[in-house]
Amino acid sequence: MKDVFGKAILDFQEGNYTEDIITFSSLDEEDTIPVPYLFRVFKEMPKLEQEALKLCKGTILDIGCGAGSHSLYLQEKGHSVTALDYSKRAIETCSLRGIKNVVYTDIYSFKNQKFDTLLLLMNGIGIVGKLNNMSKFFDHIKTLMNPGAQILLDSSDIIYMFEEDEDGGVWVPDTGSYYGEIEFQMEYKKEKSDSFFWLYLDYKTLEMAAESNGFNCEIVRNGEHYDYLAKLWLK
């Protein structure tokens, strides 16, 4: 894939920031990702992220680390953290920021290491792409967990993005797919990424998927707008 996300991150790190990332989605929404936000410090993070970082314990795998802001904070707090991302430029940025343990790979190719905390923030569960990939994801993630390990993830129920009818119900197009499966494309400095699917999970759907794959699941904290932080651990 064209690494436009990583290019934007590395540009910012190297002082070449001039514009933000534009996103296009299957919901016909055009939006932007402010690149400086990816470099936020702890006090600038949402409460859900702050809570997740406080709950981290033992050895930590930061999955989809991006610019590495979460990993950097944890490292500065004395934790043993590994920052993993499928963006080569993002991982280069993490190294430039001083993160000691970095891995450039996709999560399914990462093997033979185990951790006490697996962290998926900024809707990190989105990497699963589609709901029917959840079992594959959970099967692999189990191989990366020490006894007693925890998964900390945040996500959102995007039901609010669909039209409400006169009776207060929500009209969701019948596409045959789960409504949280969103197709995205990114653009940065006139270069567009390939299209990809990103998954948003309402809590009940996450809970059912977790239970059916041998995990306990609980909400740690609800956010301000349909978002939440959840903790999962093996039964």
From TrEMBL:
Signal peptide: none annotated. Keywords: Methyltransferase, Transferase. GO terms for molecular function: methyltransferase activity. Residues 61-152 form the Methyltransferase type domain. One of its GO terms (biological process) is methylation. This is Class I SAM-dependent methyltransferase. It comes from Zobellia barbeyronii. The lineage of its organism: Bacteria, Pseudomonadati, Bacteroidota, Flavobacteriia, Flavobacteriales.
